[in-house]
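Q: I'm writing up a methods section and want to include an example of the input and output format. Could you take the sequence below and give the corresponding predicted structure tokens, formatted cleanly so I can copy it straight into the document?
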Amino acid sequence: MTFRKSLSSSVYAVLLLLLPSSALAADSASSGAAICFARVASNGALQSSGGKGTRTVTVSRDADGLYTVTCNGRYPPQGSAAKVVVNAAAEVTFASAAGNASSYSSTQIEIAVTTWQGSTQSDQNFTLLVYLGR
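A: Here is the clean output for your methods example:
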């Protein structure tokens, strides 16, 4: 049993060394880890960011309650805007946020986010998590 366990670990380590980096990026994106995340203040200021493959994140406040979040980095080439799953949440009680991917490339993902207070579109602090589905 010990031999089989150590053999499978060795085989896995060798496979990791032999796989191209694009295959590893694709695997990590589908593993459930967020490929991009951001915490944004109501004025559009980026408070924190990161994600698997993300190097930088920029935010622009386009109008009351409208933001564009751009994630820059290295993302799986087989992705598309239709495969991007966005989870946006306002950080205030009775406020809400929604987001969707407006564009996707292997180096950049652009997310449009809208925030509301009640039924009125308004500036809100929000968090954003971006995943890539299959």
